[in-house]
Fold this sequence. Notes:
Strand 2 (9-13) and strand 3 (19-24) form a beta hairpin. The two termini are 35 Å apart. This protein has a seven-stranded mixed sheet with strand order 1-2-3-7-4-6-5, with helices on one face. Helix 3 runs parallel beside helix 8 (201-212). By secondary structure, it is an alpha+beta fold. The chain is built from eight helices and seven strands; from the N terminus they run E-E-E-E-H-H-E-E-H-H-H-H-H-E-H.
Amino acid sequence: MKSERIGSVTRTRLNNGLTVLVKEIKKFPVVAVQVWIDVGSADEQSTQRGVSHLIEHMLFKGTKKRAVGELAGIIEESGGDINAWTSLDHTVYHLVLPSNRLSLGLELLADVLRNPSFDAGELEREKMVVLEEIKRTRDHPERWIGDLVFEVAYPKHPYRYSILGTEKSLRNMDRKVVVDFFKRNYCADRMTLVMAGDLDQDKALKKAAGWFGGVPSNHTLLLKP
């Protein structure tokens, strides 16, 4: 584990290749935590259009230890908030919690990122949710124009494709495509954990190493076929 100071931020590279950024901000008794995954819609093949965004949805749909909805319930009961977003190049999971619940937040994020269940029934339901998102895009001219501009500006680059995917790609996407994409990309050397707020830098780093130090560089989650 190797650390360096960059201004007020400490950057540490864990032994498994995962990067941790820590910044102490003592003004308020809260902490913000994000995990950036170095994968987005630009990394998808033709049969995978929309899979990055779909995985973002599915990671809140239960793990091997926690049922659907349990994660959000724990966070809300602790006075926190959790959410995520997908872009062309990254997928990001973030939460805000009271500072005395940092350990809980790290545990939950580690569970989500290492042990998602990818329940087949939930996957089909979430595909329908994303299909509705695609339809709603057509009801918002500014979003639709944005997609059209990228399609024209990047005729040969994957930036031309919508982050949400297409109706065809989503309807044809099975669980194996989702799980394989997850295993290949959600690995330690493609993850950056960011912690900022009312925390002790050394203690926070130790907690992060405890929960995320076991993430393999080449993901080998044993998920049911």
